[in-house]
Amino acid sequence: MTDLLGGFAPIILPVLVLVLWTLIMLAWMAAVRLPYMAEQKMGPEQGERTSELGAKLPRHIQSKADNYNHLLEQPTAFYATALASAMIGLGDGLNLYLAWAYVVIRIVHSLVQATINKVMIRFSLFLLSTICLLVMTGNAVLQLAN
Asked: What is the C-alpha to C-alpha distance for residues 65 and 71, in angstroms, rounded to an integer?
């Protein structure tokens, strides 16, 4: 394990970058959603059920919330895999490159979903990020099995 981050495995940095990106998406979502809701005089009760609120918002506004939700889904498996990798000594090398690839792809996925929202582009990016996660997980499982 390289001592690049004060004793922590280097794979911790992409984990924190993705957490930071998730918070950026939360801020972007709030920055577009709250003014629209205020303009439309939509009170808090309009958001009692997320799906009902989503149906009342224009797609270009709701897409930020959809992406924020996506960043709280599969990336949780990424966080677990990256942290487990750090704990078993796989926080650098191939897993580090895969972790950075995963994070960059998820950020691009966010930007696509929040702007042009082309499903096939999003799906392709999701598939690429899933492959990165699968290989990272496989590496960890193989390490533990040996």
From this structure: 10
In sequence order, what are the residues at sequence separation of 6 or more whose Cβ sits closer than 8 angstroms to the Cβ of residue 67? 25, 29, 109, 110, 113, 114
Q: Along the chain (146 residues), what's the average pLDDT of each consecutive run of 10 residues?
A: 66 98 98 95 85 91 96 98 95 97 98 97 98 97 92
Residue 85 · residue 139 · CB < 8 Å: yes
Enter the CATH code of domain 12-145: 1.20.120.550
Nearest Cα to 54, choosing from 72, 91, 71, 29? 29
Closest CA to 90 of 20, 129, 138, 131: 138
Confidence (pTM): 0.93
